[in-house]
Design a protein that fits this description.
By secondary structure, the protein is mainly alpha-helical. The protein has helices spanning about 5-10, 15-20, 35-70, 80-85, and strands at about 25-30, 30-35. The protein contains 4 helices and 2 strands; from the N terminus they run H-H-E-E-H-H. It has a two-stranded antiparallel ribbon. Helix content is about 55%, strand content about 10%. A hairpin with a 2-residue loop joins strand 1 and strand 2 (about 30-35).
Length: about 90
């Protein structure tokens, strides 16, 4: 696929495409940069996996931060962070 075809497939503007062009799994043939469709689809799948992992990590961090904010609230449904790690404040 040509870069133009890739941009059309991904429905990106020229400016958006310029931002990712260096990341694409491209090769040169006949003086043109091309991308194999299978490699492009794998590249897209990899980006989706990394994005999902980042979202999951962000949610975990947000949950821990929220839990720390409520650690003194007896009505909060989770045990305190100190209880989870079997620590006492004096051992920290």
């Amino acid at each position: 696929m040509t870069f133009e075809e890739v941009g059309d497939l991904l429905q990106l503007s020229a400016a958006q495409f310029a931002g990712i062009a260096e990341e694409l799994p491209a090769f040169e043939a006949g003086g043109r940069l091309l991308v194999r469709r299978a490699c492009l689809l794998e590249w897209i799948a990899d980006r989706e996996r990394r994005h999902a992992a980042a979202l999951t990590a962000g949610k975990v961090v947000a949950l821990v931060k929220r839990r720390l904010e409520f650690s003194s609230d007896d009505n909060y449904p989770f045990p305190s962070v100190l209880a989870l790690c079997s620590c006492s404040p004096s051992s920290l």
